[in-house]
Amino acid sequence: MTIPTLLLVGCGKMGGALMRGWVSSPTPPRIFILDRKLQDAPAGCTIFRTPEEITPDVKPDIIVLAVKPAGAEAMLSSLKTVLGERMNHTALLSVMAGKSCEKLASWCGRADMPVIRTMPNTPSCVGAGATGLYASPHVSQAQKDLAIRLMEQVGTVVSVPHEEDLRTVIAIAGSAPAYVFYLAELLEKVGQDFGLDAHASRALVRGMIYGVGKMLHELPEDAETLRKNVTSPNGTTAAALSVFMKEEHWPRLIPEAAKAAIKRSRELDD
Taking every annotated instance into account, which residue ranges of this chain make up the domain Pyrroline-5-carboxylate reductase catalytic N-terminal (predicted)? Predict the structure, then answer.
């Protein structure tokens, strides 16, 4: 199998997570990084500080755009100038929460630019990401397969049929690690407030979340069945769930949180 060449544009939180996931995968791609602030990169990666530093030998199969949405237009304009004809032989893979395929293609100066939009999440840095992926009509099957293969190196990939579906992906997977981290934060604090020391509370909560994730990943039952299996009638778990499951609590708050994430994703398109 030919080793793909990537130009990773932006190596902040998400770009850095992807880079760490890729370099630690069994078959890492060849990675060139464009980032002004990155001090060190893993062995085998080359860093450029500005687009103008990109050398003529850099011929990426995919440009991975991991900059903030506000800087995307200027960055793609610079890359178009620097790469020239090389832009005609690459696909653009965006990991930004916003900016449509059509808009990204226009910033590349090509209406028919192959654009792939993905919504990965930060567990990609430990090879356990969950990514939604949409490929525009101008993306070839080979380019889509390469994008899926790259994202599979850092976790689970779900290809969605409509670009609009990525908004839902953001709400239930892209932003969702923060929801789980917040739950862990609150549970750790409760443990300490009720008498456990910080180390014990942290170890118990993190072990619990790891175990639950492992069960969801490895067992065939759906989440509802697993919940019912661990909820004895009139037991302690049932008592706690009776609070969470009140109509004004989780059944209302979870959809509201998802709607807030979707609303913000639309605002980022402007």
Answer: 8-97
pLDDT, one tens digit per residue, over 24-64 is: 888 899 999 999 988 888 888 999 999 999 999 999 999 99
Give CA–CA dist 264/97, Å, rounded.
Answer: 9
149 by Cβ neighbours in 10 Å (0-12 / 13-18 / 19+) ranks as middle
97 contacts: CB under 8 Å, gap ≥ 6? 69, 119, 170, 174, 265, 268
β-strands 91-94, 62-65: how paired?
Answer: parallel
Angstrom distance (rounded) from CA 60 to CA 5: 5
Residue 1 has pLDDT above 70, yes or no: no
108 to 78, 153, 187: CA distances (angstroms) = 9, 27, 46
- The 3-state DSSP composition of the chain as helix, strand, coil percent (nearest 5) reads 55, 15, 35
Euclidean distance between CA atoms 166 and 168, whole angstroms: 5
Average pLDDT, the chain: 94
State the Cα–Cα distance between residues 129 and 119, nearest whole angstrom. Answer: 10
Q: The tokens 């544009």 sit on which residue?
A: 9
User: Which domains are assigned to the chain?
Assistant: 5-161 (3.40.50.720), 176-268 (1.10.3730.10)
Task: Please tell me whether the overall predicted TM-score, pTM, comes out greater than 0.70 for this model.
Answer: yes
pLDDT in the model for residue 111: 92
